[in-house]
Amino acid sequence: MDKAIRKSFIILCLSASLCGAQPEQELFVRGNKAYEQNQWGDALRSYEAISKKGCAVWYNMGNCFYKKGNGSQAIICWKRAMPGASVDEQLNIAKNLRSAYEKLGYKKDGPVYTLFEQWAYRLPLLPLQLFFLLCWYALWIIPLIDFRGRPFLLYGALLGLCFMMVLIGNILRTHYYLYAHTRGQVVKEQGHLFAGPHERYHEVGTVALTDELRIDEKRAGWYKVARGNQYGWISSAAVEPI
């Protein structure tokens, strides 16, 4: 009896899961059909109705916004597609981002998709941290080894370890930037930074449409953001979380 109840419960859970996934799949298929027919507005409505958007959905949404002339929203969608994309897809997204920034008139100031970003998106955090620690310990242990009068071998090993630590350290730093904080993309031609969460506070700086910010805090209608050594509060209407 218990086995039959357990079996019925599992079947019920699977049925509920499939029923929940079916409308999402239908929306995706409907959006793809409209996308193939260059019906960008209809495709966007279908994609936006999907609750759990994956890489393909965000990428297609970015293309739709770009075709409709909304470059800032296209940039946001493409950046959201980055984490789940393959290396080739990420390179294609980076190319699209450059085109979008150029279309918006920011050819020289557009961000560059770096090798560190590519590895930070693809490599898991824990193995990177362990390998960095291993290199750190080896850096102190290797000088204790007797190389029998071969100093060039010692210097080569130390130089290789230093190079690996710099490489992995930059990947870890990029990983921290991409995942440890919420990032935001400026969607206005110019955003104003204030000392507090209101326009009555002193203005401490400005940000441009190409800028990507780190969001540290959120209040009603405002974000506390950072960009390099610049900190301030900006209206939530000027920033879209990535």
| CATH level-3 fold name of the largest domain | Serine Threonine Protein Phosphatase 5, Tetratricopeptide repeat
Which second-level CATH architecture of the largest domain applies? Alpha Horseshoe
Q: What would you call the structural class?
A: alpha+beta
Number of helices: 8
In short:
With 242 residues, the protein is an alpha+beta fold. 57% of the residues lie in helices and 16% in strands. The protein has 3 domains: 2-113, Tetratricopeptide repeat domain (Serine Threonine Protein Phosphatase 5, Tetratricopeptide repeat); 124-179; 182-241, SH3 Domains (SH3 type barrels, Roll).
Structure notes:
The chain is α+β, with helices and mostly antiparallel strands. It has three domains: 2-113, Tetratricopeptide repeat domain (Serine Threonine Protein Phosphatase 5, Tetratricopeptide repeat, Alpha Horseshoe); 124-179; 182-241, SH3 type barrels (Roll), CATH 2.30.30.40. 57% of the residues lie in helices and 16% in strands. The chain contains eight helices and seven strands; from the N terminus they run H-H-H-H-H-H-H-H-E-E-E-E-E-E-E. The strands form two sheets. The chain has a five-stranded antiparallel sheet. It has a two-stranded antiparallel ribbon with strand order 2-3. Strand 2 (190-194) and strand 3 (203-208) form a beta hairpin. The longest helix is centred in the first third of the chain and has 35 residues, at 2-36. The N and C termini lie far apart (50 Å). Residues 1-20 have low confidence and may be disordered.
